[in-house]
Write a structure and sequence with these properties.
By secondary structure, the chain is α/β, with parallel strands linked by helices. It has helices at 3-11, 28-33, 37-41, 47-61, 102-107, 119-133, 146-154, 156-165, 167-190, 205-208, 210-230, 250-256, 271-278, 290-296, 299-313, 333-346, 378-385, 412-428; strands spanning 65-67, 83-85, 93-96, 138-144, 195-200, 235-239, 262-264, 283-286, 319-321, 366-368, 375-377, 398-400, 407-409. The radius of gyration is 23 Å and the shape is globular.
Length: 435
């Protein structure tokens, strides 16, 4: 399987050849490309240098899915009149929120992500990455959740005050922020993003309460999911907070009703419990704690925690290995490689066709279609969609999806066994080996 096929299968709830890794590395590539932060991010944004950084990181580390651009919180802040600081070798940060008065909330206009820089150049980076490695590696868009984006544009402390003292301004800010995000999602999909990832640090019931999640995050997320689905792509969601257990665990089912394909659980969550409760409903995403284990090491601790996450979540497929939050420049590269390498060696499923559940065996296993994500018995693909094809009885190394007719490679032993089975079956009915 290619990394792209691996990620697509896992997001669809299927079983790829091994657990895919999505690092959500937002600025880490700048370290690998040895570029200063302002050189890429300041001003109009350099799409070419951004794309080179993303690709350099993927080639160096070997992860299965990338964010299609170097990114940071507040990409549109300067466009809307705010200010951002760009440290030479650090991470950009907002120094003045653009919607810092109610009047500015009223006057704000959604920028055109296809024409107005820097957003247009960030979108162009997605197109460049998709054109250069998108057939092999999954490219995911990265946007903020409804309350997270609103907190960036209004200022989180002011937004929290609005919620209790000026609810109308609060609602208008969240609506504007969501409009901006939905438009950006569509532009990223048009540029080649295979899926969308909604990062939502402030869509956190510990900060703004569970009622805010129900009233604002979930409806806003539904708009994003629907917009991305209209482009033919799935959406994953990453709120901060404790959701696997405790008083807010009930919010997960409400979030899943929006139609998300994956839910990334942040640090402090019990991945095994999340897999047990929701593993049949969504792709579970998450893994090593980025702020402690991955940053501080040692390598043995990274290997051990990666193995524990795999033990908790990989059974039956529908799992994507991530660390607990995004990766930025300054993260030790050797630590990241250790996590990715451990997942590659320990996260393999025991199937011949790259589609079956652990222990499925070489003959009766499952296959996940890399095109539409449909999970089907390999024998069904060969015995139904391929039945009567001359290649089906001559050791063809492919199975054909009964839903969309796309081909998927299968192992040699499975192919030979299935070819023999089809020949014997047709012979029992006095038919030629093929039509």
């Amino acid at each position: 399987m290619t990394p792209r096929e691996r990620m697509t299968a896992a997001l669809a709830g299927g079983v790829p050849d091994r657990v895919p890794v999505f690092l959500r590395d937002l600025t880490l590539g700048l370290d690998i490309a040895d570029l200063d932060t302002p050189e890429v991010c300041a001003g109009a944004f350099d799409a070419e240098l951004s794309a080179r950084s993303v690709i350099a990181a993927q080639r160096e580390i070997g992860h299965d899915a990338v964010v299609g651009s170097i990114q940071y919180c507040g990409m549109e802040v300067e466009m809307l009149g705010g200010e951002v600081m760009f440290p030479q070798r650090g991470i950009p940060s907002v120094t003045r929120a653009p919607l810092d008065s109610p009047e500015k909330v009223d006057d704000a206009e959604v920028p055109d992500a296809r024409r107005d820089a820097p957003l247009s150049n960030i979108v162009r980076s997605y197109r460049l990455v998709s054109e250069r490695i998108g057939r092999e590696v999954a490219v995911l868009g990265n946007v903020e959740g409804p309350l997270t984006k609103a907190g960036i544009l209004r200022g989180l402390d002011i937004l929290a005050m609005d919620m209790v003292s000026d609810p109308d301004v609060f609602r208008r800010t969240v609506r504007f922020s969501n409009d901006l995000t939905v438009d950006l999602c569509s532009a990223m999909c048009e540029a080649g993003a295979d899926a969308m990832f909604v990062a939502a640090a402030t869509d956190n019931p510990d900060i703004l309460g569970g009622e805010a999640i129900v009233k604002h995050t979930i409806p806003g997320l539904k708009r994003i999911v629907d917009a991305v689905r209209s482009e033919g792509s799935p959406t994953s969601f990453h709120p901060h907070g404790t959701f696997s257990h405790g008083e807010f665990s009930g919010l997960v089912d409400a979030v899943l009703e929006t139609g998300i394909a994956g839910f990334q659980f942040a640090e402090g969550n019990d991945l095994a419990e999340a897999k047990r409760r929701w593993g049949r409903k969504t792709c579970i995403m998450g893994g090593v704690n980025a702020f402690t284990t991955l940053l501080l090491g040692p390598l043995e601790a990274i290997r051990d925690e990666t193995a524990r996450c795999l033990d908790a979540c990989m059974d039956g497929g529908g799992y994507v290995m991530m660390c607990s939050c995004s990766l930025h420049r300054g993260m030790p590269l050797g630590h990241v490689k250790e996590m990715v390498g451990t997942c590659a060696s320990l996260g393999r499923y025991k199937t011949a066709g790259g589609g079956g559940p652990p222990g499925g065996g070489p003959k009766g296993g499952w296959t996940v279609c890399p095109s539409c994500g449909h999970r089907y018995l390999t024998i069904t693909g060969r015995g139904k969609a391929c039945y009567g094809c001359p290649s089906a009885v001559s050791g063809c190394g492919m199975a054909r999806c009964p839903r969309c007719d796309a081909g998927t490679p299968i192992g040699r032993s499975a192919s030979e066994w299935l070819s023999s089975l089809v020949r014997r079956h047709r012979a029992q009915y006095g038919r030629a080996a093929f039509r």
